[in-house]
Design goal:
With 382 residues, the chain is α/β, with parallel strands linked by helices. Among the domains are: 79-231 and 266-310, Glycerol-3-phosphate (1)-acyltransferase; 314-379, no CATH class. It has 15 helices and seven strands. α8 crosses α12, α10 (233-245) crosses α15 and α13 packs across α15.
């Protein structure tokens, strides 16, 4: 067992535990249903038959998970790309700090692309609020996910953050293995992707040396994610209106489950993951007041993510509609615009809530697609 016992409460499963949890996972009707959705009966049966012989997490990922993900990509997208992979060294473990679009697929697709490009997969941070059923926890922890606890009071959260920071630093520096983490807690539902300084502070709760030394040691590699179509866009817009109309509104576990299912099953068009390179941490950051250090680092990460979005015609159409201009008209055709507007209208029709505010909901969905364009323009100084 390569993980110290102190991390047993949050760590991913190790090789010795594959034989314990994989058989349980395969018995779950939900897993059988997922395989049936994306694979032929023959291919699904073959995969289930070879699974019991798997004795390591790597075998599970490189055989079972990659087969399922490649089938999912083929059925629900027009392709997923990892761009600028040459900026990564295969001998290094990186902290992939990314914007967050889809609860499940951001990290899953990244790992598929890493495997398909000859890299080792990354560890994945997942909130305990998403571990709604036992089989979900088995599946994600077999897939190198560690648990990010989001419960407890202020004092307990401080201890939780220190514990998670120590675990992440152990994986990144002692094991020299990569890790994925969202730039903030939860998805940026309006796609205004901003790194939370609290994430930087959490990362530096462990380790030795100055602020800069600790940050350099974990080799942060910001990465920009963009989906041509976000299957959950209407669910995100719906949540915005529910929160606007009811200050006490809170999502339920069933809402998270619906978002996960919709994100997995819905059509995504083209999907891009763009490596921005390794974050350069100048010595000057050590001279800043402690209250400013995390904010400066967060802004530097944002700059790298925003500058590296791979944008699609939908994004430019939305930006022009939102700003009531034709500034980006050269990036799309009249047909692109008509199709995207029809798509937004079709998503709107899926929203069934009292006092549905169509203008507000459409505005929110356009905003989701426009914000990456507007943020990229700022990042590039345009």
């Amino acid at each position: 067992m390569k993980y110290p016992a102190e991390f047993n409460d949050i760590r991913c499963f190790d090789d010795e535990e594959v034989a314990v949890y994989l058989p349980k996972l395969l018995e779950e009707p939900a897993i059988q249903q997922i395989l049936a959705m994306f694979m032929s009966a023959e291919n699904a049966q073959k995969l289930v038959q070879v699974a019991p012989a798997m004795q390591s997490v790597r075998q599970f990922q490189s055989t079972f998970i990659i087969a399922l993900l490649n089938a999912l990509i083929a059925k629900t997208s027009a392709g997923v790309q990892l761009q600028n992979a040459e900026k990564l060294e295969k001998s290094k473990g990186y902290l992939f700090l990314t914007n967050h679009r889809d609860i499940v697929l951001d990290s899953a697709f990244l790992n598929a692309m890493l495997l398909n490009n000859g890299f080792e997969t990354s560890h994945i941070g997942i909130g305990n609020n998403l571990l709604i059923k036992p089989w979900i926890e088995w599946a994600v922890r077999l897939n190198k996910s560690f648990v990010v606890r989001r419960d407890g009071g202020v004092r307990e959260q401080l201890l939780i953050s220190k514990h998670m920071s120590a675990y992440m630093r152990y994986v990144l520096t002692e094991l020299n293995e990569s890790m994925w983490l969202a730039q903030r807690e939860g998805r940026a539902k309006d796609s205004n992707d901003l790194t939370a300084p609290a994430i930087i502070k959490m990362l530096n709760m462990s380790g030795e040396g100055s602020f800069c030394q600790k940050l350099r040691a974990i080799k942060i590699a910001p990465l920009a994610i963009n989906y041509e179509f976000d299957p959950c866009d209407y669910l995100k817009a719906k949540e915005y209106q529910l929160k606007r109309d009811d200050a006490g509104y809170k999502k339920q576990p069933a809402d998270d489950l619906l978002n996960m299912q919709t994100g997995i099953l819905g059509y995504k068009g083209r999907v891009s993951f763009v490596v921005a390179g390794e974050l350069q941490v100048p010595d000057a950051w050590d001279e800043l007041p402690r209250t400013e250090q995390a904010e400066v680092a967060a802004k530097a990460i944002d700059q790298m993510i925003h500058a590296n979005y791979h944008l699609y015609p939908n994004n430019y159409v939305a930006a022009d509609i939102l700003t009531q201009s034709t500034e980006f008209a050269s990036y799309y055709t009249a047909e692109d615009k008509a199709k995207f507007m029809a798509y937004i209208d079709s998503q709107l029709q899926k929203i069934d809530i009292p006092n549905r505010d169509d203008a507000y909901l459409c505005d929110m969905m356009y905003r989701m697609y426009a914000n990456p364009v507007l943020n990229q323009q700022k990042a590039l100084g345009k």
